[in-house]
Amino acid sequence: MLLSYARPRSIDEAIRSAPAGTSPTADDAHAYIAGGTELVPLMRAGIAEPRHLVDLQKAGLRTSIEHGVDHRLVIGAGATMSEVAADPTVGERYPVVVQALLASASPQIRNAATIGGNLLQRTRCSYFRDATFACNKRVPDSGCSAQDGHNRSHAIFGGSPSCVAVHASDLAVALCAVDAKLSLAGPDGKREIRLRDFYLEPRHTPWIETALAPRELIVEVECAADATSSAYVKVRDRASFEFALVSAAAVIHIEFGTIVNIAIALGGVAPRPWRLTTAENVVKGRPFTRAAVSAAVRSALSAAQPLRDNAFKIELARRAAERAVAVAGRIE
Amino acid sequence: MKRLVRLEVNGRTHEVTVEIGATLLDALRDHVGLTGAKKGCEIGACGACTVLVNGRRVNACLTLAVMAEGHAVTTIEAVAQGDELHPLQRAFIAHDALQCGYCTPGQLMSAIAYLNEGHTNAADPAVIREWMSGNICRCGAYPHIVAAIKELA
Lengths: 332, 153
Description:
heterodimer; A: alpha+beta; five-stranded antiparallel beta sheet; 12 helices; B: alpha+beta; 34% helix
């Protein structure tokens, strides 16, 4: 039952308006709302039950998209997915980001959904989203229905006996591949954190999903990578308006046929975007061939821990990663 | 907790008293009396509730009424000018782009916005289908909907 709705005029006021002692988990007494495309369905399903809504629309949450030298890109967390996807310079310098955004949701949702909200979206695990099923993320220590249930859509990396849900954001995967940093604002001031460190694995506490402190919010996303040769590949059951079974973001830098730098991040396979660091290290400094990349990725995927229904994701992820690298490197 | 909300819809101001958690869709249908926007799924998956907010297409079922305050909302009721149909409405009729008609207001609002968004190759059926993927038609009138939009693209 919602008790209050506030429309603060500044970020500081928004942070202060949250009652003390709140936490950023699902049963939060207070919730920030920006686009609403995630929070409204969660409230309707009884999964999020905030008592106080803090509307960020007039709080001066930055909505700008700024380009600087050395590929620097700063995106306000209040910018919508559509706005960022339509920015021509983002399209030139960070095609993987535009492709990830356009592969997400629907035009209607992208017009309202914000960058910050997209990164904070909850998992699509059908047991999490249905309050009639046991779920440790929703109700601590109540059990995980996916472990012995239908787990086709679940994790092959980073899961735990408590939780095998995957993170659903395409944008997060693309930003992981470009080593993005997040600027956070909270009661203790501002801080920066690498996106790679922002998402937490479930372990014994699957209800703790990010490093966000109580009352903190994301205010900016910053990238500073040469991602002109990058691509996003998303594989899913439907051609559009559907979450990933697996996805891959690749950024590559080739000079005279040699891989100078490469980043490969997988989506749909883990509770966080999954960098294939070992594969990257194997091929860095070597001639750029499909076969070399494929072998390195296959080797990295041998560490996967499939569940009863999702072993197919291993080969699918290998192919998605290989294609993303090939498209990024312009050999496909 | 109820709240007085001032909504600007189709150029007119309406004062409604709604729960904080009430959606724009419910406010439009139950309080403003505009039932053109339809409730198909209530989770933003079908697009039958598509309206324009500041000229951009959004799902009214995912928009809280309180959050729509201060923004210009446009619904299907504003698309025709009296008895004068919008060219897209005429195209939908000419191409038989509806059967039961339930998804049609949302399809029209979404398509009108699509045509205004200025996409490259806007008349390409593949582009139309991708950019209309937020609107479902259970009667399967998709080929006719695409043809109608293509005519105006």
